[in-house]
């Protein structure tokens, strides 16, 4: 994000948004495989529409835990019956019991097959060859000091509004709200710092019995609770359900697909994105693991006080262990030399796929919880969830630049 005076907007979507339903299902399936075999390979896509859910992708795991020669999927610990159960439980947990999309009534089709031998050959460690990246590509990480979470303020506030509304819906406090929702936060910046909201948009699915004025007042306190005091936008720029009604929602209103909300998942457009989605992928896929590593590095740079903003790019080639490049950009806010900073970061953290997985403990069933409200700006959890949000490099980084 640039210096100077400007306005900037980011959006979030709730767990009940059709694309996020698919992300949640895909990641719940990843978790099931990793719980059974921490080194399972999974690339799982989900499509959801009116009372229909389709699962497709490639997997590989310990044959003893799968129970068949090819790693799919007729008997053994992971099988189609279990996967269908996981799908239905994910939809039920989100809260879909509607005529057009119901956790119990939706038809579920599963089309998973074994991982390509050509891909496996590049990724597997063998002889003197270390484990290679699961794909080529570029990944970005970003951090800034706009919020305590070291995230851009517009996306963090957009997430927090929907998270609070979802918690109220799940608790029964807000019985008129339904699962599908979107938020959008526009902030005014002065000298590169956010100072207040100029517009807020919240679209939320609701019970047909409630009118739009009532929905507006249901939403208002959650927005006011999230924004800093005095930051609320003018009343005529507070938009709630601007179409006038939002009763039909979720996959019944709009088809969902895994991986279509990559900017929601990351930095809300405040920083670059390499293009690869996260959900449905095991940690050998650098689209996911290296993006987490890049955020980890960038967050620690800002937490260490070495810059107010930090963007890090990593690049990989399929089958190759070490990154092709490690680019650091502190956007004019850095207090240390960026070339030296790049070298120090590479000395502190092994950025091979294996090194990232082991450093961040990624071979665990920790992914379903990432599927909504952002993969970043979250609190590290005791079981290893959101490990990439730790700031345990701060002392080493500060020592390197004394």
Question: Would you mind describing this structure in some detail?
Answer:
By secondary structure, the protein is of the alpha+beta class. It has helices at residues 18-36, 63-66, 80-94, 117-123, 153-171, 212-226, 250-253, 262-265, 286-303, 338-348, 353-360, 394-400; strands spanning 6-13, 41-49, 52-60, 107-114, 137-144, 177-190, 193-206, 238-240, 256-257, 309-316, 325-329. Helix 6 links the parallel strand 7 (193-206) and strand 8. It is flat.
- Per DSSP, what share of the residues sits in E-state strands of 2 or more residues? 15-25%
> Looking at the structure, what is the overall shape?
flat
Rounded to the nearest angstrom, the radius of gyration is: 22 Å
- The share of residues in helices is 25-40%
N-to-C order of helices and strands: EHEEHHEHEHEEHEHEHHEEHHH
Low-pLDDT stretches are 65-76
Main sheet? Answer: 4 strands, mixed
Strand numbers in spatial order across the main sheet: 1-6-7-8
- Helix/strand-derived category reads alpha+beta
Distance N to C terminus = 28 Å
SS summary, helix count: 12
Whole-number average pLDDT?
92
Defining key terms:
four-stranded mixed beta sheet, about 400 residues, alpha+beta, about 35% helix, flat, about 20% strand, 11 strands
């Amino acid at each position: 994000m640039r210096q100077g005076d400007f306005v900037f907007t980011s959006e979030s979507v709730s767990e009940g948004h059709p694309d996020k339903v698919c992300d949640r299902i895909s990641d719940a399936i990843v978790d099931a495989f990793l719980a059974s075999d921490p080194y399972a390979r999974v690339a799982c896509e989900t499509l959801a529409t009116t009372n229909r859910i389709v699962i497709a992708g490639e997997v590989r795991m310990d044959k003893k835990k799968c129970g068949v020669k090819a790693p799919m999927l007729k008997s053994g610990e992971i099988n189609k019956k279990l996967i269908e159960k996981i799908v239905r439980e994910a939809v039920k947990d989100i809260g879909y019991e509607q005529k057009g999309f119901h956790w119990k009534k939706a038809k579920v089709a599963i089309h998973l097959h074994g991982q390509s031998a050509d891909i496996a050959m590049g990724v597997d460690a063998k002889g003197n060859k270390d484990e290679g990246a699961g794909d080529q590509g570029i990944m970005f990480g970003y951090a800034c000091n706009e919020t305590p979470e070291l995230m851009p303020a517009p996306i963090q506030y957009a997430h927090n509004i929907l998270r609070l509304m979802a918690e109220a819906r799940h608790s029964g406090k807000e019985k008129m709200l339904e699962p599908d929702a979107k938020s959008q936060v526009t902030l005014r910046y002065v000298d590169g710092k956010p100072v207040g909201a100029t517009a807020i948009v919240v679209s939320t699915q609701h019970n047909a019995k409630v009118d739009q004025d009532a929905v507006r007042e249901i939403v208002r306190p959650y927005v006011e609770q999230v924004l800093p005091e005095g930051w609320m936008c003018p009343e005529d720029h507070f938009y709630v359900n601007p179409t006038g009604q939002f009763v039909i929602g979720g996959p019944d209103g709009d088809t969902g697909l895994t991986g279509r909300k990559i900017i929601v998942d990351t930095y809300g457009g405040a920083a670059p994105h390499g293009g690869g989605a996260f959900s449905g992928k095991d940690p050998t896929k650098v689209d996911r693991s290296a993006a987490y590593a890049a955020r980890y590095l960038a967050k620690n740079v800002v937490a260490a006080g070495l810059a107010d903003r930090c963007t890090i790019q990593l690049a990989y080639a399929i089958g190759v262990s070490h990154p092709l490049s490690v680019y650091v950009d502190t956007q004019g806010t850095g207090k240390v030399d960026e070339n030296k900073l790049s070298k120090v970061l590479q000395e502190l953290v092994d950025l091979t796929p294996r090194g990232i997985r082991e450093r961040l403990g990624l071979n665990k069933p920790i992914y379903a919880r990432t599927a909504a409200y952002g993969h970043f700006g979250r609190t590290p959890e005791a079981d290893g969830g959101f490990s990439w949000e730790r700031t345990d490099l701060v002392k080493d980084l500060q020592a390197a630049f004394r």
